[in-house]
Amino acid sequence: MDAYTVIILIIIGIAAGILSGLVGVGGGIALVPLLVYFLHYNQHQAQGTSLGVLTFPVVILAFITYYNDCKKTGAPIEFNVIAIIAVGFVVGGLLGSKIAVKVDHQLLRKLFAVLLFYTGVKMLNWDDVVIKWLKSLF
After folding, report:
1. Which among 3, 29, 45, 130 counts the fewest CB atoms within 10 Å?
2. Tens digit of pLDDT for each residue in 90-103?
3. What is the 3-state secondary structure (H, E, C) of the chain?
């Protein structure tokens, strides 16, 4: 691996880390597209790398920061909720990865892009605007 690639990887890691700590995202939304764009990874490589990066040691410091802050503000993070979601996440992650490796990486890339686009539209409440506009036409 050459120095240029190492620098790109460090920059990608910092960007994903900042996004993860700031708004709770980083893997899918930052790492995957950045790996595809800058390192020309296929969708399977990028998603697998993202999942590998997001293991326990990476997220623990951000979690501790949120845990301490939420505890101070009287809205603590509940470990039973984490445990229940984690069980589902493990099962879902296993099933999702088994499905994903059977899907062509170009199709998977398009599905990923549609999911990101849909999420953005929903979070900006643009879907309400579009529905109101459509209703005004009829």
Report:
1. 3
2. 899 899 999 999 99
3. CCHHHHHHHHHHHHHHHHHHHHHCCCHHHHHHHHHHHHHCCCHHHHHHHHHHHCCHHHHHHHHHHHHHHHHHCCCCCCHHHHHHHHHHHHHHHHHHHHHHCCCCHHHHHHHHHHHHHHHHHHHCCHHHHHHHHHHHHC
Model confidence pLDDT, tens digit, residues 27-39 = 678 888 999 999 9
Phi, psi of 68 (to 5 degrees): -65, -40
Count CB atoms within 10 A of the CB of residue 112. 19
Task: Quote the tokens at residue 12.
Answer: 């990608």
- The model's pLDDT over 74-85, given as tens digits with 9 standing for 90+, comes to 999 999 988 988
For the question of whether the overall pTM of this predicted structure is more than 0.85, the answer is no
- Rounding to the nearest 10 degrees, give the CA dihedral for residues 23, 26, 32, 34: 90
